[in-house]
Amino acid sequence: MSLTLRTAVIETAQAMSAAGLSVGTSGNVSVRGRRGFFITPTGMPYASLRPHDIAEVDWKGRAEGSRLPSSEWRMHLDVFAARPEVGAIVHCHPPHGTSLSCVRREIPAFHYMVAVAGGNSIRCARYETFGTAELAAAAVEALQDRRACLLANHGMLALGATPQDALKLASEVENLAGQYLRALSIGEPAVLDDAEMQRVLEKFRTYGQQRPRPHLAWSSQK
Ligand SMILES: [Zn+2]
After folding, report:
1. Total domains present in the chain
2. How far is the CA of 130 from the centre of ligand 1 (A)?
3. Any domain includes 210
């Protein structure tokens, strides 16, 4: 079990890097376990990670393993504690999302896909020093009823039931951030109103779910 979770952390961190969501050793990935969570170690290139390099942090914040956990372990701990439905967290410093975070702008409903993060905006958490309990608290607050947020002058956080979900959401939010930046460069983007975003959110709840195939009458009659 632990090996599977460690491997999932490594594969997700490497995929995050390959997708251009994080440069060098920036960002971190965690996956929920039973006694705590598994997280990328601090300061190690993702390409060289082996399962024993992944740090385990218990629910009291005590780290185990030969490597020190990412400096943002506290943010992961507090988000897991506040959000029992979350199984994995991706934190990165992608170009577009981070640029927006530096002007401390949230992503409003300029595009209906903003609903992918769970609401009618993707908030930007207030600035706090990296690695602090204050940043963890700011992130939890910005993630209220959301699955992703920006972190002021820092980067982005995306949550998922699985590491794949969290990474997919991080890519989607980065894509939206890029579109929003481009739209801002040529004018003031039109923002969809709350009623429209409610419709979109409702559609998202059922989107992608296959309906049972209608009964084929002819086949049972023959
Ligand atoms: Zn960071």
Report:
1. 1
2. 7
3. no
pTM for the whole structure: 0.92
What is the percent of the chain where pLDDT is above 70?
93
Q: What range does the domain containing 15 cover?
A: 2-204
Residues forming the active site: 72
Give residue 200 CA to ligand 1 midpoint distance, Å.
31
Asked if residue 217 belongs to a domain, the reply is no
Residue 216 included in any domain: no
Using the mean position of ligand 1's atoms as its centre, give its distance from the Cα of residue 93 in Å: 6
Q: Which residue has the higher pLDDT, 26 or 176?
A: 176
The pLDDT assigned to 211 comes to 55
Interatomic CA distance for residues 215 and 213, integer angstroms: 6
Q: What is the pLDDT of residues 81-95, one digit of tens each?
A: 999 999 999 999 999
CATH number at residue 126: 3.40.225.10
